[in-house]
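Late entry, written up from scratch paper. The run itself happened at the end of the previous shift, but nothing got recorded in the book at the time, so transcribing now.
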Amino acid sequence: PRLQPLVCQKYPRVSRPLAASNPLDLHIAHEAYLTPSDQSSLARIRHCSAEMVKRNNSSTMLSQEDLLQIGNHFTKLGEIFTNAAKQQSEVVESTKKVPKDPNAPKRPLSSYIMFCNDNRDKVRNQHPGISSQDISKILGEMWNSINEVEKKRYELIFQRQKQRYQEEIREYEQLKNLQQRTAIDPMHETFELANSFASGIVKFD
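Output as recorded:
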């Protein structure tokens, strides 16, 4: 038996054969998020799907091999669009990130970063033309070789800056919350007044 009658018998509410509409087009919204490899796979599947639809609409019966290939195609499609949906979700999440407030207190630099900032120019002058990657490598070796007294000095600076940052961030959050409440309260009063006019509690003279 051909595929179309079987589909129509199994699903009597289907008014037309499934072959008349391409199920691959249902996922076209995801195509912007497909990798080049998945785009290539999808193109091959579409080509094979179109060929099978032509054969199914003719007098040619679909073989067991054809049906197996269809199953493999849908398995691959599942993988392709799962990957695309994941990529789409990551893009959406990245667009949801709240922009940083330029007025917010800045986090203190770690003791290691402070050490690197103090010695980067020195390393660059000692090794003209050296790459940034090699500079970072040398700085890492220098940090590991300095004595504990020197490391402790940088750590104490970091702890003082960290304490100051924590105090500043508390003040910043308090001020931010106050500004938000100040902005919301007039809006709330305006809404309540409009509600009163609408309900007839408050009337114009």
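Residues 148-199 form the longest helix (52 residues).
(Scratch paper discarded after transcription.)
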